[in-house]
Amino acid sequence: MTSPDCVACGDDLAPENAPRSAGAIALTLIALAMGGFAIGITEFAAMSILPDFARGLGVDEPTAGHAISAYAAGVVVGAPILAAFGARFPRWLLLIGLMGLFAVANILSGLSPNFETMLVFRFLSGLPHGAYFGVAALVAASTVPLKFRTRAVSTILMGLTVATVLGVPVVNLISQAHGWEWTFHIVGGIAVLTMALVALFAPRDPPHPGASPLQELRALKNRQVWLTLGVSAIGFGGMFAVYAYLASTLREVTHVGPHILPWVFAVFGVGMFSGNILGAWAGDRFGFPAAAGVLIWSAVALAFYPLASQHLWSMLVVVLCVGAGGGLGSILQTRLMDVAGEAQVLSAALNHSAFNTANALGPLLAGAAVTAGFGWASTAWVAVALTLGGLAIWVWAWLDGKRTAVAR
């Protein structure tokens, strides 16, 4: 069953969007993906320059890590609030506004005179993250026929995966040469570029006067919405449980030098990029059951992680496969379009709140296993448990959806 909101689901294109040539659709998707690219850089590159801005702002590295947490907190808080209150605005204008806030907050992050100010600006930087991805996914889906919408949605996430493979290493090199502040200034510049591209190429949808915060909040009464978000919050936690301690595992267990680490993380990014493409294809072909396939794939790959950790070549293979589990994102995003009814904007944005919940939960539980003395490779068993937990929630959602005639 599809959403009644044709602009969101892309079933029959709205009059203001149709007809659109293949070139016009491609330009729209590139414009939207550019925002994902900017968000990917600020989220992942901030981790890579953490020692640099810790020294620059006069704090130790564990304290500097609070800036990462502040950004994640901004995502969780901002996604539902900005999505609910922005639902009635034209989506192309809302995207420009969200990127404007993102640009200003990142530029100010680079100008922070002290760590306390940095925390505030990192929190503000995170506010538009989830709402941008949610609204961009709806706009992307509206430009193509229903059978291609998961692939259209995946292009937004592809911007993020390209950032992990190319953007983060390049920005990191620039920042090492010219100062950590450049990471945030570059992100701000890319955000401004995104605003211009969206203004030029995004379809001009009208205002949505029938939408309201109350209407959007009705999505929270829908059990299918919560179950889908649960798959994301728990199932994705497995990938983050391993990713957060990948560098430590490579140093302490695989015994590789620091010059090898960027290449392994690049392999992870290639896995995410590939998984995003294959996951989108599977989502369009099989619908929600494709999510179960990705979760099973991830659980198997993660189970091999402890064995693979002894050798670099085997780690590269397993890390590539674990990264491919990122293909789950676009499948869950389109699932939310199916089950959210009229609350399309809020539910789409909440997927990224759930994603960042996984980003917090996975490392927390994996870190507890390491602290308890089970070793770095034990993070994989925590990851397997979380992934299977996400699969269990998927089974619940699928059976419940069949009973309520929601599953497609």
From TrEMBL:
Sorted UniProt keywords: Cell membrane, Membrane, Transmembrane, Transmembrane helix
Membrane topology of this protein: Multi-pass membrane protein
Taxonomy, superkingdom: Bacteria
Sequence ranges assigned to domain Major facilitator superfamily (MFS) profile in this UniProt record: 28-402
Location in the cell: Cell membrane
UniProt feature coiled coil, ranges: none
Transmembrane segments: 24-47, 67-85, 92-111, 131-148, 155-176, 182-203, 224-248, 260-279, 286-305, 311-332, 353-374, 380-399
PANTHER family listed in its UniProt record: CHLORAMPHENICOL EFFLUX PUMP RV0191, PURINE EFFLUX PUMP PBUE
The name this protein goes by in its record: MFS transporter
